[in-house]
Specification:
Residues 18-40 are annotated as: Disordered. The protein has helices spanning 4-20, 43-49, 72-82, 90-114, 119-141, 154-169, 178-188, 191-198; strands at 26-27, 61-64, 67-70. By secondary structure, the chain is mainly alpha-helical. Helix 1 packs parallel to helix 3 (72-82), helix 1 crosses helix 6 (154-169) and helix 6 (154-169) packs across helix 7 (178-188).
Length: 219
């Protein structure tokens, strides 16, 4: 349980949940592949998961009354719909849908490098193409306040997460893109987001599980 991509999504889901006031409903055991014994007893999750009535037992999971969800994107969209954070106009909805999938591709491009045994050989190539990918996101944001427009949507949470991962990977990667840096500052300054990131629930690292060649350790 708890693949690297799911774990990255969990960061974003918890952030969105904290922002919308739904934090207590999300349970996030550290996946056994993230923390070696004795830091975590995986039987805690194994014993619990079959009792929860989840269609596809996985982490994180979300329970809201009779609604029981797994898969980070499904949880995120559920929370976002309840709080009208999926875009309202047709243009906003189209931008949200397209960016959600573009972010997924972007996230996976880093994941594939991080989990590859030839990580050190692949890292320079990833860094070489990174500015081009960031430029596309910069152009897409333009002079908008948020990625869909003037209103915050759930893709801003996804975007913040994946940009932060890349900034940890290469601290200067956002320097050429003022609007992306401003977006990161603006998002991080949101009262509920800032409070969440200062809380004990927030884990900046690890990004990936222990099988990865990078991003697999606590800070």
């Amino acid at each position: 349980e708890g693949k690297g991509g799911d774990w990255g999504g969990a960061h974003t889901t918890l952030n969105l949940s904290a922002f919308s006031g739904g934090g207590p409903n999300i349970t996030q055991h550290p996946p056994p592949s993230l923390l070696p014994a004795p830091d975590y007893d995986k039987s805690q999750w194994i014993n619990e998961k079959e009792k929860l009535g989840l269609d596809f037992p996985n982490l994180p999971y979300f329970i809201d009354g009779t609604t029981k969800l797994t898969q980070s994107n499904a949880i995120m969209r559920y929370i976002a719909r309840k709080h009208k954070m999926c875009g309202e106009t047709e243009e906003e909805i189209l931008r949200v849908d397209m960016l959600e999938n573009q972010i997924m591709d972007f996230r996976m491009s880093l994941v594939m490098v991080c989990y590859n045994p030839d990580f050190e050989k692949l890292k320079p190539g990833y860094l070489e193409q990174l500015p081009g990918k960031l430029k596309l996101f910069s152009n897409f944001l333009g002079d908008r306040k948020w990625f869909a427009g003037e209103k915050l949507t759930f893709v801003d949470f996804l975007m913040f997460d994946v940009l932060e991962q890349n900034r940890i990977f290469e601290p200067k990667c956002l320097e050429p893109f003022k609007n992306l840096k401003d977006f990161m500052d603006r998002f991080g300054a949101l009262e509920k987001v800032a409070a969440y990131m200062k809380s004990s629930r927030f884990l900046k690292m690890p990004i990936n599980n222990k099988m990865a060649k990078w991003g697999n350790k606590k800070e």
